[in-house]
Amino acid sequence: MIKQIYDERALPMKDLEALGLAEDGKLNIDKNDLEAILSGRRTDMLRLENLSAQGIHIPALDAKLSVKLNVDGGLELLVHPIYRKAEHPFYLTDTEAENLEKGEAVNIQKQIIDQQGRKREILVEFDKDTQEFIITDSERILVPDTVNGQYLSLEQKERYRKGKEVELQDGTTFQYSASEPKGIRSNKLALIASVLIDGGLSYVLYTGLHALFGQKHDKEKANTFSKGYHDDVEKMQEQEVEQESEYSNKAENQYSRGYSQTNSR
Predict the structure, then answer these.
(1) pTM of the prediction?
(2) Domain ranges of the chain
(3) Which of 14, 36, 128, 159 has the fewest CB neighbours in a 10 Å radius?
């Protein structure tokens, strides 16, 4: 999990329209890709067609998208095409970079000094789709409080934040990954996580998850889910019903007040 750090209303709409991903101010992008962008991650690989830039026409381009803050505080759209050669960050040794590129390491944790002179812990991964190194600030990683109904220990939370595998009692193993649009890999095709917000648990259901690094899904085991998973799915559904009911009541009350004020004049 990772915090949603950007507001959809702040997205660079004109740039998205130029890529055919928005029209008349309305987005035309997959929900999962949108969630990835708003959370500071990359989308899945997208086919962008009929592009024009600086007088050059590009019939089609396969790329991933993300956004970042520019110097003016607005959001800038980043296009990540497939690079011929990867350029690794200066703080990685040649051996570390090679291990990531060859798939011999899932990620590498580093402590660096940023431009403001502050120490930062980061995770470095390699995106084989685009031949790029991905850097994630560990502080931005939102660690779940529970997964499939099981509360994570402090040790498990720290492992997750450091990009290491976390194994649960129900046999579910999962791991944070910035190279994944959903930000997580697992030996299961689905899991449900929650974070403690305002004194209550807020649930997120992840489906269609990719297998753990260097592994393949065992079809039978990957589709077998624990009682804790099913219990949390029910809790999430109940929470959604309650939220919809609260929203409907609020909207009805606002309408009633407006109607009463109109008729009292």
Answers:
(1) 0.73
(2) 1-81, 82-140, 141-243
(3) 14
